[in-house]
Amino acid sequence: MNERCPVCGLIYEREEGYFSSSMAINIVISEFILAGIALPLAWNPHIQIFQALPIGISVAIILPLLFYRHSRSLWLSMDHWLHPLNSDPT
Question: Does 46 fall in a domain?
Fold first, then answer.
């Protein structure tokens, strides 16, 4: 990931561990989507557990990987909205 925005020069990582909250956002949103997929499969009496298990496992692994960049940008935009930078600290 770039250290600064190429257009405005915004420093992305303000301190070490800055994007820890983006990991929490990633997990929460991914698990809500997973629950929305897995619960209807679990409640369907015509689907066996061995049919639903590969779907649930693959979604649980792939979805957080696909949403990784989006969660970082979502956290960065939320933080910039809540704590705007008035000037460049350099």
Answer: yes
CA-closest candidate to residue 72, choices 17, 32, 29, 23: 23
Asked if the structure places residue 18 within a domain, the reply is no
Residue 63 contacts residue 34 (beta carbons within 8 Å): yes
User: Total domain count for the chain?
Assistant: 1
* Residue 76: C-alpha distances to residues 10, 11, 39, 51 (Å): 11, 10, 31, 39
pLDDT score recorded for residue 64: 93
> Domain of 74?
30-82
Six-digit token string for 33: 């989507």
- Any domain includes 73: yes
pLDDT tens per residue across span 35-72: 998 888 888 889 888 888 898 899 999 999 999 999 99
What burial class does residue 80 get, using C-beta atoms within 10 Å of its C-beta: 0-12 exposed, 13-18 middle, 19+ buried?
A: exposed
Q: What is the pTM assigned to this prediction?
A: 0.73
